[in-house]
What we know:
Layout: H1 2-21, H2 23-30, H3 34-42, H4 46-62, H5 64-83, H6 88-116, H7 122-129, H8 132-144, H9 150-171, H10 183-194, H11 197-217, H12 220-228, H13 232-244, H14 246-258, H15 263-282, H16 288-302, H17 304-311, H18 313-316, H19 323-352, H20 356-373
Helix pairs in contact: 1-5, 1-6, 1-8, 1-9, 3-19, 4-6, 4-10, 4-19, 5-6, 5-9, 6-7, 6-19, 7-14, 7-17, 8-13, 11-19, 11-20, 12-13, 13-16, 14-16, 14-17, 15-16, 15-17, 15-20
Amino acid sequence: MVSIVVGSGVxxxxxxxxxxxxxxxxxxxxxxxxxxxxxxxxxxxxxGVVGGIPAGSLIARAGDRRILTxxxxxxxxxxxxxxxxxxxxxxxxxxxxxxxGFLMVAVAGPAILYRMVRPDQQQFALALWSCFxxxxxxxxxxxxxxxxxxxxxxxxxxxxxxxxxTAVWIGIPAAPKRISASLRGTMRDxxxxxxxxxxxLLAGCFALYSLMFFALFSFVPVLLxxxxxxxHAAAGSLSALATASNIIGNVAAGYLLARGARRSAxxxxxxxxxxxxxxxxxxxxxxxxxxxxLCILFAAVGGLIPAVLxxxxxxxxxxxxxxxxxxxxxxxxxNLGQVVGPVAVGSAVKAHGWTAAAAIILISALIAAVAALxxxxxxxxxx
Length: 383
């Protein structure tokens, strides 16, 4: 069951990563510049900026398996429409539909794990779940190089979503019957969650992490091709390696938290290391290999952050019944960063070159570190 849930997240994350690896093909086929390509990555998350809390409230009422299935179906439909798109506007609209599906999967996945996994195993299960984004993006960047046409990549991603739907329907038990969803109930949940400082800080920290991560990895293939003068396939493989290193931090977070590591330390240190690594990457002060190693360090250390934030949701939720709603709020933060990061960096690079992205990364890292220090986790012996 855990494998199916995490696998569904990986399928959703592939839809994110495919835009990054397809950027050179889209530039050639549709004549897009980096700013337009940034919107293809950023608009994917636009619905998540406002829809996280409603999605969490809907899960609490309609059932997590149903929402996970609907999310995967939305991903599949969006990919199919995108594959048949004849222009940029239609492709952009299809990314919105894929983004809706991603939001539902991202909120439903943890809800199923909270429901189905024993409390003594939840820390590890959530650490595995936090791997879905880097794993999916790495697979997209690696597998995307096998396609000579971006439309074939979109069709392949739609097929993966169809397989995931079948696995979810067969392998995950339905949630107990919930009360009917209502606008009044959703608003009540939203107000109760928004009144708490902890959930808002969690969402802010996730927003800044996503901004930094996607500001870099939405353009890593293009950056490597321009800097190292390597072909598309090699850039995809190296980008996949750098992205996959994020999994190291995800798993390490579960290990360290189980042994009493301070959550604030596991957030502040990675933020600062990411900020400094981003300077080295975008200011281009090192050679090709050191720059690639900095990308790997950026992702590996940063992987600690989502695992810590996701596992902290039950600690900061106002009540057990609102865990899914807080998860939705945190995903809103994640999606906000996912929108702002690629668009900001794409526009900055277009106007001022790659060095303009360095300030975005560093300022985000400093603000995130301060926000992380402001969180009071209240998790007793687990710190």
